[in-house]
Design goal:
With 334 residues, the chain is an alpha/beta fold. It has one domain: D-Maltodextrin-Binding Protein, domain 2, CATH 3.40.190.170. 48% of the residues lie in helices and 20% in strands. The protein contains 14 helices and eleven strands. Strands 1, 2, 3, 4, 5, 8, 9, 10 and 11 form a nine-stranded mixed beta sheet that branches. Strands 6-7 form a two-stranded parallel ribbon. Helix 2 runs antiparallel to helix 11 and helix 5 packs antiparallel against helix 14. The radius of gyration is 20 Å and the shape is globular.
Length: 334
C-alpha cells in the first residue's frame, strides 16, 4: 500500500471514531480548506483553544485533506465531521440563498456588503438551521479578483483563457459557457497542479487565499477588480450541537463570535499586505480603467436573469439587490 493510500486509510479511520469519547470529554471534528498556518487557520485554531478550555475539543482537518468544500458538507451530513468552515460555495450545498451575499458586481465597497449581510444573515441562519446546520459565526476571505498567467483586463481577455470553476457547480459553468467562455470544472484542491500542467491558466479568488495556497506563483497577473466579497461561515450540525450540554454553549458561542469578528478585521487589514507580499515574489497588479470596469459590470450584471432561480433563489437575490439599493438611498439622503 502506497503512502497516499495509508493516509486515506488513517483519515477514514479517524473519522469513523466516536464523537463523544467517555474518557476524553467531548470532541467535534472540523474540516476546512484553509491551509495550515494561514490567517484563516490560525483564527480557527484560536477558537479551538478557547473551546477546549470550555470542555469541547475541536479536532481540525485543515488544508482540504477531507476534500473540497462540497465533500466536507457531505461528510457533515453523514456524521463523519461535525463542524465546517466554508465559503459561500460550501454553504450553497446546504442552501443556495447564501450566495446572494456574494453576487458579482453588486457591491462597490465593504460598507454596502456589510449592510446587506446585516439584513439577510438572520433569515439565512434560519434557512440553514432548517436544513440541519447551525451558524456559529460569519466570516469572509476578502474580495475576489482574477489571477492569470497573462493579464486579464477585460471580458474579452477572459475569453482567451481557461479558468477554474468549482467542480460541481454546473449552473455557474453553463452560464459562463453560454456567454462564450471556457470554464474548467475542478475541485479547489486541484487548482495548483492544474495551473502547473496547463489545464487551466487563470482562476478567481481573494489575495489572501492566492497567497495562502501559493496559487499566484503559477498565475502572477492579478486584475485589480474587486468583483465580489467572498463571504463564509462556521457551521455545526444541529445534531451535534444539540448534544452539547447547555451550560457549555454560551462560552462556545462567545469564542465563535470573537473568531467571526477577527475574520472580518484581520482579513480586511491583511488583504493589502498579502498583495504586497505577492508583489515581492513576482506578482504584477493590473489596474483597470473606468471603461474597463463598465465592461465587467455589463458582463456580470447581464447574467443576473440567468443566476436568479438557478445559482441563487430568486427571492433571496431580489432581497440582496433591494437592500443594496436601500443602503445607497440612505447614503445619498445624508
Amino acid at each position: 500500500m502506497n503512502k497516499k493510500s495509508w493516509l486515506a486509510l488513517l483519515i477514514l479511520s479517524a473519522l469513523s471514531a466516536p464523537v463523544f469519547a467517555q474518557d476524553k470529554g467531548l470532541t467535534l471534528k472540523l474540516g476546512t480548506l484553509a491551509p495550515e498556518g494561514s490567517p484563516f487557520d490560525l483564527i480557527i485554531r484560536d477558537m479551538g483553544d478557547a473551546w477546549k478550555t470550555s470542555g469541547v475539543k475541536l479536532q481540525m482537518y485543515s488544508g482540504g485533506v477531507l476534500g473540497d468544500e462540497p465533500d466536507m458538507v457531505t461528510k457533515m451530513r453523514l456524521g463523519q465531521i461535525q463542524v465546517g468552515v466554508f465559503t459561500v460555495v460550501g454553504l450553497a450545498k446546504i442552501d443556495k440563498g447564501v450566495q446572494a451575499l456574494s453576487l458579482p458586481m453588486l457591491y462597490k465597497d465593504y460598507a454596502e456588503s456589510d449592510y446587506v449581510r446585516g439584513k439577510m444573515q438572520p433569515l439565512l441562519e434560519k434557512r440553514l438551521e432548517a436544513k440541519g446546520f447551525k451558524v456559529l459565526n460569519w466570516g469572509e476571505a476578502g474580495w475576489v479578483m482574477f489571477f492569470g498567467k497573462q493579464p486579464i483586463l477585460t471580458p474579452e481577455d477572459l475569453k482567451k483563457v481557461k479558468f477554474f470553476v468549482w467542480g460541481d457547480d454546473a449552473d455557474t459553468m453553463n452560464i459562463w459557457k453560454s456567454a462564450g467562455y471556457s470554464p474548467v470544472p475542478l475541485a479547489a484542491t486541484d487548482i495548483l497542479p492544474n495551473l502547473q500542467t496547463g489545464l487551466i491558466n487563470a482562476f478567481d479568488t481573494t489575495p489572501i487565499s492566492a497567497l495562502s495556497f501559493q496559487w499566484f506563483t503559477s498565475a502572477p497577473h492579478m486584475t485589480n477588480l474587486k468583483w465580489a466579497p467572498l463571504v463564509g461561515a462556521t457551521v455545526v450540525t444541529t445534531k451535534a450541537w444539540n448534544k452539547i450540554p447547555e451550560a457549555l454553549k454560551p462560552a462556545l458561542l462567545k469564542a465563535a463570535a470573537e473568531a467571526g469578528s477577527r475574520f472580518k478585521t484581520e482579513i480586511r487589514n491583511g488583504e493589502q499586505k498579502a498583495i504586497d507580499v505577492m508583489k515581492t515574489k513576482g506578482l504584477t497588479v493590473h489596474d483597470i480603467t473606468e471603461a474597463q470596469r463598465a465592461q465587467w459590470e455589463k458582463l456580470f450584471q447581464g447574467t443576473y436573469p440567468q443566476i436568479s432561480g438557478t445559482v441563487i433563489p430568486a427571492d433571496m437575490m431580489t432581497q440582496a439587490i433591494q437592500f443594496r439599493d436601500e443602503y445607497r438611498a440612505k447614503k445619498a439622503a445624508k
